[in-house]
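Budget justification, computational time. The allocation requested in the original proposal was used primarily to generate structure tokens for proteins on the priority list. As evidence of use, we reproduce two of the resulting records. The first is shown immediately below.
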Amino acid sequence: MQVLMVSSECAPFVKTGGLADVVGALPAALKPLGVEARVVLPAYPQLFPLLPKGTEVAAFDDLPGGTARVVAVEAEGVPLVLLDAPQLFDRPGGPYIDEDGRDWPDNHIRFAALSMAAARICMGVIDGYQPDILHAHDWQAALSPVYLRMTGRTEPKSIITIHNIAFQGRFGPQVLGQLHLKTDWFHPEGLEFHGDLNMLKGALMYSDRITTVSPTYAREILTPEFGMGLDGVLRARSDVLSGLLNGIDTDVWNPADDKALAENFDAKTLKRKAANKAALQEQLGLVTHATGPLFCVVSRLTSQKGLDALLDAVPHLVATGGQLAVLGTGQRELEQGFKTAAETHAGQVATHIGYDEPLSHLFQAGSDAILIPSRFEPCGLTQLYGLRYGTLPVVARTGGLADTVIDANVAAIAAKAATGFVFSDVSGAGISGVVDRVVDAYADPKLWQAMQRNAMRHPVSWETSAKAYRDMYSDLV
């Protein structure tokens, strides 16, 4: 079976968040199940070295934004189909923003071009290649099922996966002509959303199936609280909506042979984890004689992630004897808030603004617990990395966090099943309360090590979800 995935990100080539990790890992997980997945991806500057190594398989002169060529190449085990349109993608900054942190003003054109190219590939423009399924990811790829449906075709079938419904690709109606969209589809039962074009809504209306990245999030987005204005659309199509939990690449995230660690370890050699804690403390300037647990944050620094509430809880966390290490970038006020916290609590709090992939591995290996106090979280991957590395997740009760972490309540501890800590009140007081629970558990080494081993045994790979995707593809075909 041939599946064409469409995405604006794919690890390890270009990454701003969990979307890239999913798109980078899923093709490999599907291959043993008889599914050949290729990924259509913009040729950003970091992918330019791959272009001469590939084969030009198609060219277009009428995409939104002009001409483009399509280059097929395999790299890092991922079959890629690169959309080479330098006028759209050869830019400094990130995939979506410029160097000053502002959205590129032509993002609608850039990702419409990506989507139209994918739809054309599904129509057979590459000799010898005909996908059975079009699988689009998030708003940047959301017009691909729309363009495919505009041709009048019913094959191949299409799927849209929502990684975060907060990002929808909303633009004024004046862009319809630029994007070659049918104006008679611009109505409330089609592409129109409160007077604007909503790319994600288009995919929700015209795809054959809708998935999101955890069962709980699939239920949450049917409500006004979490649906971000699209809950009504989703309720109307709830018969084709499902939540398939993300997994992680357990080869990349494996403490037994992770080259970014000071010392490798597994569930049977947990004592070796301490060497990573010492290395992380030394690198960040944290004192090494602290008696409490070392908490970490590896995240975009945004209010969605509940990190403003964490700032309120920092004094209490430090007062309990705990330490905090923060790695991430995001809202300027939160970046400054954690810098200030590190200055105020020198030796107990450390902040690294930016993103560093090897350092993120050391954060996971060297910390005792990972804090994820998100106000909403479609799936989350960092808690899965934490489980894998025996770094106990401390998570808000929402989305995939609730689906993947077993709270250390009395019953779960008695059943020897607890893998972390789950709480409901995302506020300074709520986080302080769960910090107290973590500190108390950490003070009982026997309990703590039992929870670590539970966590490291918890299934976090793609195996189960890849089979679910394979079954969905098969049903559609």
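The second record produced under the same allocation is shown here.
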Amino acid sequence: MSQSGHPSDLLDDRSLWKTAAYIDGAWVGETPHGTYQLTNPANGAVIAELPRCKEAETDAAIEAAERAFRSWRRTSAQHRADILRRWFDLTIQHKEDLARLITLEEGKPIREARGEIDYAASFMRWFSEEATRVRGDVIPAKLPSQRIVTLRQPIGVCAAITPWNFPAAMITRKATPALAAGCTMVVKPAGETPLTALALAELAERAGVPKGVFSVVTGNDSRAIGGRLTGHDLVRKVTFTGSTGVGRVLLEQSAATIKKCSMELGGNAPAIIFDDADLDVAIEGVMMAKFRNTGQSCIGANRIYVQDGVYDEFARRFTERVRAMKVADGMDEKSDIGPLIGPGAVAKVEEHIADAVSKGARVLCGGERSELGGQFFMPTVLADVPQGAFVACEETFGPVAPLFRFTDQAEVIEMANDTEFGLGSYLFTQNASRIWAVAEQIEAGLVGINTGFISNETAPFGGIKQSGLGREGSHLGIDEFLEAKYLCWAGVEDY
């Protein structure tokens, strides 16, 4: 890896360094709206300037997607599967470069970034296989002279609005089932992390994805771009990962044209550790669930409930583990905690800690900015946190682990469900009866049982309550991009 001054020199394949929007198979380096700067969250350095797209560029991408859809939908499932498989192979081949791009623009520790590329690529492989499994049905008719057949057809042009915290995986989890189904897609990546999306577009082109089938619209004018994606008549489906507040706006905007929507929104995941839990397993699981991506994960353990009998021991041992974590630039191979995404994220972490302490919580470790300065914050453990603290009802999205004490099962279920959100949750116990009872009563779309690692391509990912609509991944993921068409044949007579 080259060590010269330009950030692109971090890449072995410098052709993956793209600083132009990708629309209708062409790289668009300039728009009438100028450019915006992309900065490295680890040091604030400007790493690139990208074109600002607005309504006109978004419309161009949508119209190209509609043109491409007319032919893409008619390709064979096997043809689409082969292209997605080549995209997977190229992604794995360029895994290191893609991981470096993630770390450079998002700050994620490089070891985790490599894991994200594996995760992102897994959807390419999975949905390349699911493409050939889409099928309809034959249904017994009421009349002997009729036959009923159902077809499953691609919904049409799709729009994806993706977040910065998993800039590769949140694109592939949406784009690959769409393309597998025969849909086309326009992606609006987060303004903080366009480089990863554009590198994926370059690899998609190499894999043989036709022009217009997959476009990436860059820019930090989210309202302008999002307003067209939700308002344009040609867009039939909107898929979004981000905050619940933004999701509400997108749903409202999409209602005018009755678009199909899937939303993966905010979380406030509880992690429950019962007295009979294996503490080694529980500590390892909570470490993973809480501090992945410096705590910036929608399914991160935001509230850690520990039963009386093991509370003190868990707090002591868990704090020792957290105190040993290394805070460093994500490019450091030994980094456990990278920078937060921006100054606002740091301010929110500080606000949540101050509020908890003012209400009686104790800081067991961390609680302050790192000596590295900037957007680095020390991993923090808070003990004796009251249920009324901000960290109990708001998603912190940072490296803060609040410990809540509970006494019995009924109490902790009530505490865990005391939130408008229902995305991820975690449960640690060795009692099989309790596992069934608690897992069924927790109001969440995902339940990790004796593990902090619950995301994979084979499982349906999604929330309930105000954490979203629909499911991504698994065999259900492709259904979000298909419509069922019913054919009723009459006049069938015996001969």
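A brief technical remark on that second record: The domain at 7-265 is CATH 3.40.605.10 (Aldehyde Dehydrogenase; Chain A, domain 1).
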